[in-house]
TrEMBL record:
Keyword Transmembrane set for record: yes
Keyword Metal-binding: no
Pfam families named in the record: EcsB
Membrane-spanning residues: 20-43, 55-75, 102-124, 172-205, 286-313, 373-391
Name recorded for this polypeptide: Bacterial ABC transporter protein EcsB
GO cellular component, one term: membrane
Keywords: Membrane, Transmembrane, Transmembrane helix
The organism's place on the tree of life at top rank: Bacteria
Amino acid sequence: MNKLFSKRRSQHFMLLLRYWRLVFNDHFVIALFFLFGALAYGYSQWLPTLGSHEWWTRLILIGWFTVIAQIGRLATLIKKPDPVFLLPQVEGIHRYLNQATWYSLILAEIMTVVGAFIALPFALTTEKLSSAEIVTIFLVAIVNKADWMHVARKSLSLRWGDQQWRTRLEYWVNPLLASIAMWLVNPYVGLVVAVILYLAVIVYYRDLAVNWRIAVKAEQDRMYSVYRFFNLFTDVPSVQGNTKRRKWADGLIRWLSKGDQPWSYLYARTFVRSTEVSGIVSRLTLLGMVIVFLLPAGWLSTLVVVLFIYLIATQLMPLYDQYESNVFTHIYPIPASQQQADFKQLLAKVTALEALLIALASIGWQLNVGQMVINLIIAAVEVVLLSRFYFNVRVKKLMK
């Protein structure tokens, strides 16, 4: 059983690594760099404005430490045929699940500690904490996560598996009680409460014979959520989409297309229906809006606006030659110049819309109208340059 889990863990890691390479491409890494930089800068600018011992700051800390206890799920790596082939291995499957729990707990504790580190500057700004109290706060977060993971383990058992309402309640109530004691009384009391709750969970939930039906479904649901995340960035065979009529997109297609031009209509419909292209464009737009809204007014805000408009334009470019391998598009009695003109129109409209949204968001939380107007003007100039000059350069490279 130890070798089985090690083998499955390696296969699982290689599967995730294959998708991570597609998700964390150059453009997405750059976007994340600016996003985290903007959030960190905004966070550092916000902390000095806080006063000490505000009544609402402790509520935020209680909520934060309750939420970070929910990060990281139990990964059993159980597969659908296991109830047939591993059913006689009663003791072996118990050791297997113990390995899975420890593996999941270690990864989850790392994320929990990171979450506690994020809240630490806020806590030091609003509370007077000694070094021992800071260490105690981290210990409370670690114990809360261990408590959460044992509750997740008992939810797969024959005795407790059908009481999912109880499991969901314990996921939130146990860390909430420890967090309330930690921030409304003191961290030492919070640690005592967290340890008592953890020991009570261990002692009370002892009969953990696996319920195969629940265990298989829980792992399938966990992997499906992982695949759904990867599917936001690339096509995942395990996630099958549903085809349905979307009347709301008719107006968007009419706006993107032009008259009776076949290429214009084809590009417009492809952009709307292709979740790979339209999805990443919409996500980049939303990400750019969040970043420029959090950034202070100045040259950095303008630089981010220019960068995200360029990223969006580069994501649209692969649409141009998407149908080169389709023989039927080559029998259209339409010159290549018309195809280029139709795609140039789509590129201009999409980038103009996204540039408008990002530039408007650059008004920021300080409501700097002057900076927003400057960004609007620069964004308009960039859209013209991208649709008229950058597109021609890229087409020449594609046609070589």
